[in-house]
Amino acid sequence: MANRQNVKGWIALGLALGSALGLGACSVEWQNRQAAREVARAANPPGSVYTGWRLFQDKCASCHGAAATGTASAPNLLPLVRDMGAQQFMSVVLRRYDWGLPVARDGRQDPAMAALMDDLLQRRQHALTMPAWQGEPGVTVHIADLYAYLSARAHDAQGPGRPTP
Q: In a 10 Å sphere around its CB, with 0-12 CB exposed, 13-18 middle and 19+ buried, how is residue 73 labelled?
């Protein structure tokens, strides 16, 4: 009889220990799952790589090349996009003309931009050919997709060919 109670006690202790370990693992898993989601979100920006590729081919490839690696008339976008976040990318594409100038962080005009604008007004340099895409609905609606494609290219997650839809 005492032996039977000892066995029941050990079983109860085992179940309690298993439950405690299981609950502890769940809370650790939940915390790790949250961190994993944040890492995945940073690695996979919002938007469709395929839709971004289609937009890039339609609006950007004629100047920047089909693989976004640049041409004689426009720069290689991959190192530029690699070093910027989604918000900075969207600002550059929608509002700025020259990829070579630094983005003003506080809204005031950068001296390099002021010099460039002066040169353009005095017609000392050729006109810049990159349009600001802010007024183009097809671009503004899919700007996150464009960033997803170029970011994937810049971080070697997407090759130069057509992505799978």
A: exposed
Q: For residue 132, give its domain range.
A: 49-154
3-state SS class at 93: helix
pTM of the model: 0.58
Encode pLDDT of 6-40 as tens digits.
656 666 666 665 555 555 555 555 556 666 566 55
Q: Are residues 38 and 54 in the same domain?
A: no
Give the Å distances, CA to CA, from 16 to 6, 19, 75: 15, 5, 64
On whether residue 163 sits in a domain, the answer given is no
Domain membership flag for residue 120: yes
For residue 19, what are the CA distances in angstroms to 15, 23, 30, 31, 104?
A: 6, 6, 16, 19, 56
Of 122, 141, 138, the closest CA to residue 57 belongs to: 138
In 10 A of CB 96, how many CB atoms?
A: 16
Give the domain CATH number at 96: 1.10.760.10
CA atoms within 13 A on the CB side of 73: 11
Tens digits of per-residue pLDDT, 48-104? 999 999 999 999 999 899 999 998 878 899 999 998 888 888 888 887 655 555 555
Residue 165 lies in a domain: no
